[in-house]
């Protein structure tokens, strides 16, 4: 256990120590922030803490990948895939569910999505079989998709993933495009601002 906390009680194990350790593992939460969150939970109304605990339990029991796009949902299809107002002939391929959120925030894209759940990384042993590539190909081969926008991150692995997807999608006869380079090289969609993502979508190019 890391020692960068001011309360020695947290180093003695028990419930307090275990909860603090779990909080400390969360992204963006350091030891001091975990300590503050722990004591907030202890000082707030008990019913609120129990409601939070029940919500976390439901999160693990009810949330699962969408049958079609693999984004998170608690139904068979997510709200985007089941929305009749969305353009089902336009398919935007992203690496992670959080990329869907980033693109939706810019407010200019009205098509569907496909979440790969990663990117090709041969040195880490991540090949196409570890991603949802087969599912993507099936969706395109069904014939309803007219354009696939490859919105993988503009870095080395994201570009390699986009090139691979282009090589397997182009023979199917679908139009394949890539987000414009309004996105800084080496960055990720998650941290791009809405205006930048909107420009990248509007200026996408053939790949």
Structure description:
With 207 residues, this protein is of the alpha/beta class. It folds into two domains: 9-62, RecR Domain 1 (Helicase, Ruva Protein, domain 3, Orthogonal Bundle); 72-206, Dna Topoisomerase Vi A Subunit, Chain: A, domain 2 (3-Layer(aba) Sandwich). It contains seven helices and seven strands, in the order H-H-H-E-E-E-H-E-H-E-H-E-H-E. The strands form two sheets. A five-stranded mixed beta sheet has the order 4-3-5-6-7. The chain has a two-stranded antiparallel sheet with strand order 1-2. Helix 6 (156-169) links the parallel strand 5 (147-150) and strand 6 (175-178). The longest helix is centred in the N-terminal third of the chain and has 17 residues, at 46-62. The chain is elongated and about 65 Å long. The termini are far apart. 27% of the residues are buried.
Instruction: Give the number of domains.
Output: 2
Task: Give me the number of helical elements.
Answer: 7
* Mean pLDDT rating: 88
The proportion of strand residues reads: 5-15%
The assigned structural class equals alpha/beta
Instruction: Report the span from N to C terminus.
Output: 48 Å
Helix-strand sequence:
HHHEEEHEHEHEHE
* Number of DSSP E strands: 7
Output the radius of gyration. 21 Å
Largest pleated sheet = 5 strands, mixed
Shape: elongated
The share of residues in helices is 40-55%
Q: What is the CATH domain class of the largest domain?
A: Alpha Beta
CATH architecture term of the largest domain: 3-Layer(aba) Sandwich
């Amino acid at each position: 256990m890391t020692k960068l906390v001011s309360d020695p009680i947290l180093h003695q194990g028990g419930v307090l120590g275990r909860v603090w350790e779990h909080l400390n593992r969360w992204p963006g939460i350091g030891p001091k922030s975990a300590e503050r969150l722990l004591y907030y939970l202890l000082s707030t109304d008990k019913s609120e803490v129990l409601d939070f605990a029940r919500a976390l339990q439901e999160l693990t029991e009810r949330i699962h990948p969408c049958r079609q796009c693999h984004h998170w949902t608690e139904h068979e299809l997510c709200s985007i895939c089941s929305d009749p107002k969305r353009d089902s002939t336009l398919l935007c391929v992203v690496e992670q569910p959080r990329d869907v959120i980033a693109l939706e925030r810019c407010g200019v894209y009205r098509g569907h999505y496909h979440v790969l759940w990663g990117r090709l990384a041969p040195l880490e042993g991540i090949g196409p079989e570890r991603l949802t590539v087969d599912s993507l190909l099936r969706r395109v081969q069904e014939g309803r998709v007219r354009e696939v926008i490859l919105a993988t991150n503009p870095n080395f692995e994201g570009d390699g993933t986009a090139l691979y997807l282009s090589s397997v999608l182009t023979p199917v006869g679908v139009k394949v495009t890539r987000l414009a380079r309004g996105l800084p090289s080496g960055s990720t969609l998650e941290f791009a601002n809405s205006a930048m993502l909107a420009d990248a979508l509007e200026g996408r190019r053939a790949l």
